[in-house]
Every structure is written in structure tokens, then in C-alpha cells.
């Protein structure tokens, strides 16, 4: 009773708000309010066979993937865009960790993730990392790792050169922009393993494709990818 009263007092002085809509959270709610949890645009692609997964088709004929997964659909001016903005530009690291944990729980409940050996976030260049202070993909990887009980590392995959923004580039231009910027700094860490490469948003898939190829070239037995959100194209 005392702890409950104390929690209510703390919540009154420092109100907890939903990461998506900024409304106050009710008792028992964490990170997201019940309304947002209900209304977020989930993809549910993990429920589909690989041949029916529209995200998997983006990589067909390019790089073999075990799973291609994304938690949410990216809709402009919607809750997901707000969540990603909070994560990338407002210092709200807990957004990535929370969504990673939630998605990891969902994947685990459907039997996915039991064959994963290592989770690797897409790395930022050191200049961008220094400016932002953290890598948003690291937070998502950490959340997934907690729920799936799979180790993750920010040291294995490295970005060697700074690249221009991908936002206004075509798929071919995006691929050319990132084709040789990544390397596996610790090949022994991936050799013979099933590696999950994670990022914040999947658009054309060029960045994830470039990372996946490097991981396979370093000796990984299999590679999968997962993102917080995916954009239609």
C-alpha cells in the first residue's frame, strides 16, 4: 500500500506520459497508453510465411534472408513517425528499448528468435554518433535482446565512412551510397551463427542489404533483419 501511494505521489510530481501521444499514463501502463497500443499500425508480418511477406520480397534475388521483420508501418504524421522522431532527435532512448522489448515479446510468443545467435545494430558513423550521442538502432537491439534472451553487440559491425542522407535517393543510388561503407570488425563473432541485423526504418532495404552481405561474407551461417518500422514504396 505504501509503495503504491509513493508511486502515485511520484507520478503526480513527475507525470509519466505516453511515448506516442504524450498523454498521461494510467496506473499499470508503461511506455505506451492503452489507446496507442491498440491503435498502432502493426505489420504482423512475422505471422506470414516468408513467401507471403512483402518485405522479404524486397531482398529476393539480392541476398538470402531467413526472416525479414518489421514491427510497425511508418505513416507520415502518425504515431509511428512521432515515436521515431522522439527516438532519433529528442534524446528519448527509451522509445527504442521499449519497442524492442515489446516486439521481442511478440516474436517470442510466435516461436521466432529461438534460432538467433547474435543481434547487430546498423552502426552510425562516429561523426553522427558524436553529434546524436547514441545510436537509435542500439536501443532497439538492446530491447530485442532482453526479450529474446539473445546477445547483442555494437562492436562487431562497423561503419567506415560517412554517407550522405538516403532520404531523397533512389534504390540504386541508396545501394551505391552504402555498398562499401560497412565491415565486420570481429569475424569470429559471426562465423557459423545466425545473425539478426536491426535498424530503425526499412525503406528500400539498401542499408540492411549491405550489412547482411558483409555479415554473410564474414562467415555467418544465416542472416535475418528486423526494424522498428517499414515504409511503403
UniProtKB/TrEMBL annotation:
It holds the Pfam family Pribosyltran. Gene3D superfamilies: 3.40.50.2020. Residues 10-42 form the Double zinc ribbon domain. InterPro entries: ComF/GntX_DNA_util-trans, DZR_2, PRTase-like, PRTase_dom. CDD domains: PRTases_typeI (cd06223). Residues 140-228 form the Phosphoribosyltransferase domain. Belongs to the ComF/GntX family. This is ComF family protein. It comes from Hymenobacter jeollabukensis. The lineage of its organism: Bacteria, Pseudomonadati, Bacteroidota, Cytophagia, Cytophagales.
Amino acid at each position: 500500500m505504501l509503495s503504491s501511494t509513493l508511486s502515485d505521489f511520484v507520478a503526480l510530481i513527475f507525470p509519466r506520459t505516453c511515448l506516442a501521444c504524450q498523454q498521461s499514463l494510467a496506473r499499470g501502463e508503461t511506455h505506451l497508453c492503452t489507446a496507442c497500443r491498440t491503435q498502432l499500425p502493426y505489420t504482423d508480418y512475422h505471422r506470414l510465411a516468408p513467401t507471403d511477406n512483402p518485405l522479404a520480397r524486397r531482398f529476393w534475388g539480392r541476398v538470402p534472408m531467413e526472416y525479414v521483420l518489421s514491427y510497425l508501418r511508418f505513416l507520415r504524421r502518425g504515431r509511428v513517425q512521432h515515436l521515431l522522431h522522439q527516438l532519433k532527435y529528442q534524446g528519448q532512448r527509451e522509445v527504442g528499448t521499449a519497442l524492442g522489448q515489446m516486439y521481442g515479446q511478440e516474436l517470442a510468443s510466435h516461436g521466432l528468435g529461438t534460432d538467433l545467435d547474435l543481434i547487430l545494430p546498423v552502426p552510425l558513423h562516429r561523426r553522427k554518433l558524436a553529434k546524436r550521442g547514441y545510436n537509435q538502432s542500439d536501443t532497439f537491439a538492446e530491447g530485442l535482446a532482453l526479450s529474446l534472451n539473445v546477445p547483442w553487440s555494437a562492436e562487431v559491425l562497423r561503419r567506415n565512412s560517412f554517407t550522405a542522407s538516403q532520404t531523397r535517393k533512389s534504390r540504386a543510388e541508396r545501394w551505391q551510397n552504402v555498398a562499401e561503407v560497412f565491415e565486420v570488425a570481429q569475424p569470429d563473432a559471426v562465423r557459423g551463427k545466425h545473425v539478426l541485423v536491426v535498424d530503425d526504418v526499412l525503406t528500400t532495404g539498401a542499408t540492411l542489404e549491405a550489412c547482411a552481405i558483409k555479415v554473410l561474407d564474414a562467415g555467418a551461417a544465416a542472416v535475418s533483419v528486423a526494424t522498428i518500422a517499414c515504409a511503403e514504396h
